[in-house]
Amino acid sequence: MSSKRFKKLPEKTSEMESDVIEKLIPLVKKNCTTKFDESIDLNFQINNKQKKSEINIRTVVNLPGGTGKKVKVAVVCEDAKATEAKDAGADIVGSDDFIDKIKAGELNFEKLICTPSMMIKLSKLGKVLGPKGLMPNPKLGSVTDNLKTAITDAKSGQAEIRNDKDGNIGVSIGKKSFKDELIMKNFNAIIETLEKEKSNNTLKGDLIKSAFITSTMGVSYKLKLGKNI
Predict the structure, then answer these.
(1) What does the DSSP 8-state code read for residue 172?
(2) pLDDT number for residue 223
(3) Which of 86, 138, 166, 200 could form a disulfide with 143 if both were Cys (CB 3.0 to 4.6 A apart)?
(4) 118-140 as b/e, with b when 16 or more CB fall inside 10 Å?
C-alpha cells in the first residue's frame, strides 16, 4: 500500500510530455516531502542493442557541484605510500594485511583505490570485489600512483556511470538541499560525458532512448535531451 505522503504526490507524471531539466528540477524538489535530504537522481535507458555488439559504458565523472555524500575511501598501497594516502584523506589504508581482510569479506568502504604494484595481489579478489563494483580500474583512475588526486576526486564528488545488462544507467546529481545551479552543473557534466561516450562508440542513432529525473522517494518525470545524444 502507498503511504499517505506518496498519495499526495502528483500522479502519472511519467506519462507527461518530456521537458527540459531547468523546469523539472523545481518540480522534483517540490515532491521531496520526506524528513531527510533526498537525492536527485537521473535514470537513462541506452540504445545498447546493436547488430555488431552491445554498447557497454563504464566511466567516472567529477561532479563540479559535488554529490552531498560522504564517501569512505580505502587505499591498498605499499607501506612507503601509506603516509601519503592518510595525509590525502583516505579513511582506511593498508597493504597485505588489508588485502587479507578484504578477502575475508571486510568491505566497510564505498571506494577502493590501489597502486599499480599492489594491483597484482588485489586482482585475485575479483569474486569478492567484482559483484560489489569495488574492484579498482585504471580506466576509472582508481589504479594509480597519484594517490592524492584519486582520493581527492573520490571524496569531492565523483560519480560512476555504468549501464547494467538491460542498458539502464542510474546516477545521482545532488540533493534536495542543493541550489538549482549546482544540480544543473552536475547534470551538464553527466551529459558531456555521455556525449563523449557516444562519439567513442560506433553507434547507429541516438545513445539515449529515454531519460527520467526523480528523487529518492518521489515520482519521475521524462527528460528532454539535446540532439547530440
Answers:
(1) E
(2) 95
(3) 138
(4) bbeebeebeebbeeeebbbbeeb
User: How confident is the model over 91-146, as pLDDT tens digits?
Assistant: 999 999 999 999 999 999 999 999 999 999 999 999 999 999 999 999 999 999 99
pLDDT digits (tens, 9 = 90+) for 157-201: 899 999 988 899 999 999 999 999 999 999 999 999 999 988 877
Tell me where in the chain the CATH 3.40.50.790 domain(s) lie. 73-156
Where in the sequence of the chain do the CATH 3.30.190.20 domains occur?
A: 16-57+163-222
Chain mean position to CA 72: 14
* Order of strands across the sheet that contains 221-222: 168-175, 39-46, 208-215, 221-222
Strands 39-46 and 58-62, how do they pair? unpaired
Is pLDDT of 1 > 50? no
Phi/psi of residue 219, nearest 5 degrees: -115, 160
Question: Can you list the positions of beta strands (E) in the chain?
Answer: 39-46, 58-62, 73-76, 92-94, 111-114, 158-162, 168-175, 208-215, 221-222
Q: 16-57+163-222 maps to which CATH number?
A: 3.30.190.20
Report pTM: 0.85
Q: Which overall architecture, per CATH, does domain 73-156 show?
A: 3-Layer(aba) Sandwich (3.40)
- Length of the chain, in residues: 229
